[in-house]
Amino acid sequence: MAGLRYVWLALAVWGTIHPMSYFIQWFNENTWDLMAMVDAWHVNAATSGLVWDLTVAAVTLTVWVIAESVRTRRWLGLLAIPATFCIGVSCGLPLYLFLRSGAPRRP
Fold first, then answer.
1. Using CA of residue 75, residue 60, residue 40, residue 18, what is the dihedral sign?
2. Farthest CA pair distance, the chain
3. pLDDT (tens digit, 9 = 90+) per residue, 27-57?
4. Residue 106 domain-assigned?
5. Quick check: is 40 in a domain?
6. Which has the closest alpha carbon to 88: 30, 41, 36?
7. Distance between alpha carbon 20 and the CA centroid of its chain, in Å?
8. Of 12, 38, 60, 85, most Cβ neighbours within 10 A?
9. How many CB atoms sit inside 10 A of residue 69's CB?
């Protein structure tokens, strides 16, 4: 399973760099106004649907991370929550899987 752990890490890195390159490009071409970007996300029904799809996925991931962190007392996994909402599910989910697949804790 150690190999799979590194797949999660690679996906987390990719899920950070790839989306952020588009976000930075958009900010450089437009303004560094976050609300203007949110307005651009809702330019039509297709993009609004995608935004809501990712929002539901992010909230679901957050509930899962919190529930598992409380149950297992492995608090490092909580880092996936700000990663999810500041970067995206493409970073937060593989990051959580990477952190979750670490060495098991001793009781």
1. positive
2. 52
3. 999 988 888 988 988 999 999 999 999 999 9
4. no
5. yes
6. 41
7. 11
8. 12
9. 19
